[in-house]
Specification:
By secondary structure, this protein is an alpha+beta fold. The protein has 1 helix and 4 strands, in the order H-E-E-E-E.
């Protein structure tokens, strides 16, 4: 599950209206990982892909590729006034 705060949903809705894409959603994705960990991105997407997971929170549609949802963790409530924050668990390495 992905949760969008009311503050974030308001900002996203404003942006979608400004771009005249009120029926669109927000794609959240992983751009890969390296020594410093995963990098995340967001973009406006008109329609979900066939294999996407679709979430709706506070009136905002969020699209995530179904093969990568485990690396996306929802924002902790109250963490930011506006914007996006992600947390991921530390992965243990075999010794």
């Amino acid at each position: 599950m992905i949760n969008v705060t009311q503050v974030a949903a308001s900002k996203i809705s404003e942006l979608l209206a400004e771009k005249q894409k009120v029926q669109s959603g927000l794609r959240v994705f992983v751009q890969g990982g390296g020594c410093s960990g995963f990098q995340y991105g967001m973009m406006i997407e008109e329609n979900p892909g066939e294999s996407d997971l679709v979430f709706e929170s506070n009136g905002v549609k969020v699209y995530v590729r179904s093969h990568r949802p485990q690396v996306l963790i929802a924002q902790a409530p109250g963490r930011m006034q506006a914007g996006w924050s992600g947390e991921r668990p530390r992965l243990g390495h075999p010794r």
